[in-house]
Amino acid sequence: MTDITIRAATRDDIAFLVDANASMAWETERKTLDRDVLARGVAAVFDEPRRGFYRIAERDGAAVGCLLITFEWSDWRNGDWWWIQSVYVSPTARRGGVFGALYRDVEGQARANGAVGLRLYVEWENERAQRTYAVLGMQQEHYHMYRTGFVAFD
């Protein structure tokens, strides 16, 4: 097994990030995303740094995983929660430490930048991911999530 390197995503990674997001949506929710909308959404992160940033995991110079960090202000804590979103690891790289490397990278950055903590959401049925997050020291929150949508989506 070769080393995993983590780096900041750039606009050159947009095609990989679009493919990763589309694959993740299909695998986890059986949703087919509109790739044009998705490409604009990924590019929008690079257009406005306040939206967040992507990290890329590479093995042997090839992208094998990614995640997106977005921010949520907490008035209670006077700081930002960093939300881990759009997590994807290529099938051939799974169970090989890719997500763990991404997580440790982001955790270090969050601590160094004064974040109040890391959060993410996971499908209730995705027990494998839940076990992975627990092994990394994350704790299950006691909240349910609700939404109201203002754009068309499934």
Summary keywords:
154 residues; alpha+beta; Aminopeptidase; globular; acyltransferase activity, transferring groups other than amino-acyl groups
Describe the secondary-structure layout.
Layout: E1 4-8, H1 14-29, H2 35-47, E2 53-59, E3 62-74, E4 79-89, H3 98-112, E5 117-120, H4 127-135
Parallel strand pairs: 4-5
Antiparallel strand pairs: 1-2, 2-3, 3-4
Write a structural description.
The chain is α+β, with helices and mostly antiparallel strands. It has one domain (4-135): Aminopeptidase (3-Layer(aba) Sandwich). It has four helices and five strands, in the order E-H-H-E-E-E-H-E-H. Strands 1-2-3-4-5 form a five-stranded mixed beta sheet. Helix 1 packs across helix 2. It is globular, with a radius of gyration of 15 Å. The N and C termini lie far apart (39 Å). The model has no long low-confidence stretch (mean pLDDT 93).
Tell me the distance between the termini: 39 Å
Rg measurement, Å: 15 Å
Task: Give the strand order of the largest sheet, numbering strands 1, 2, ... along the chain.
Answer: 1-2-3-4-5
Strand content: 25-35%
**What's the number of domains?**
1
Average pLDDT confidence is 93
The largest pleated sheet is described as:
5 strands, mixed
Helix content: 25-40%
The outline comes out as globular
So how many helices? 4
Instruction: Tell me the structural class.
Output: alpha+beta
For the record, the CATH architecture stands as 3-Layer(aba) Sandwich
Q: Tally of extended strands?
A: 5
Give the class-level CATH name: Alpha Beta
Q: Which topology does CATH recognise?
A: Aminopeptidase
Assembly state here?
single chain
| CATH homology group | Gcn5-related N-acetyltransferase (GNAT)
